[in-house]
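Review this today:
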Amino acid sequence: MTEPAKPGILDRLRARYGWFDHVMRAQERYQSRKGDFFAAGITYFTIFALFPLLMVGFAVVGFVLSRQPDVLADIETRIKHAVSGDFGQQLVNLMDSAINSRTSLGIIGLATAAWAGLGWMANLREALSAMWEERTETGNFVRTKLSDLLALLSAFVAIVVTVGLTALGDPALMTKVLGWIGVHDIPGLGGVLRAVSLFVSLGVSWLFFTWLIARMPREPHSFASSMRAGLLAAVGFEIFKQVASIYLRTVLHGPAGATFGPVLGLMVFAYITARLILFATAWAATSTENLAAEPAAPPDPAQITPRVQVREGLGVRGMLAAAALGALGALGFSHLLRRR
């Protein structure tokens, strides 16, 4: 008898450590549901949506400057002083043209931003649903787009609230507020404020990622089953932000880095963030309670395939049976003759 194969080192670690088994389950779910593919799609739509958003921003600035001619004249003077010659005048003319066409620029920007935003939201929701292994069916096109539009608006509100709460925890802002109330020049105050800012940012990110993992898929899930995954995503996001800030400070010194560094940094930031969100969702979906709650898949339908076999002639078995019957018949006939 052959001895059963011994388990490998990964199997032994998974059997010994529950957290490591959970990590491997999440990684297997992420890979089997094409997490990298979805992350690349989310990154594409994120970068693509920035251009119409910039158009909308320029249109808003144009409306504001058109009603404040003194500010506009001051900006034009600063441009001419900073950039001399024909190039400075071209920049001024370009700015005036953008302000004059602010209405059409804003309309085109809003329409394009809505289209790109719906594509971004549809890709994000499909990716999150894939990590949960939801059995989504293609429904009504208009109803699906309306659902994606509502999800996009709710995500926009959530992002604005998250950014606002994070800004309130900025150490510089908290220093100004403490200065207004007469609290300043305290030893160690800067370190305490930085720690408070980090915890505020971590808490806000935790709430945002938990909401994203639980509510953004096609079929919403409970917050309780997504809180640990949201905390995992928040911690990873804060670490990644610190590394990204160091990267940008290093890259932006040279002329090539100043030109291409922000764009590359934005692409890397969007891609890593998308992968982090999807892996955290796979972590939530492969937790023990969520795996136990998944309904068992129905068995495949049974297929009855009758087999009809046609034989010509007696064949080997027929010949043997005929020989046996003949032998029995001969013995019986000889027995009758002897009795007579």
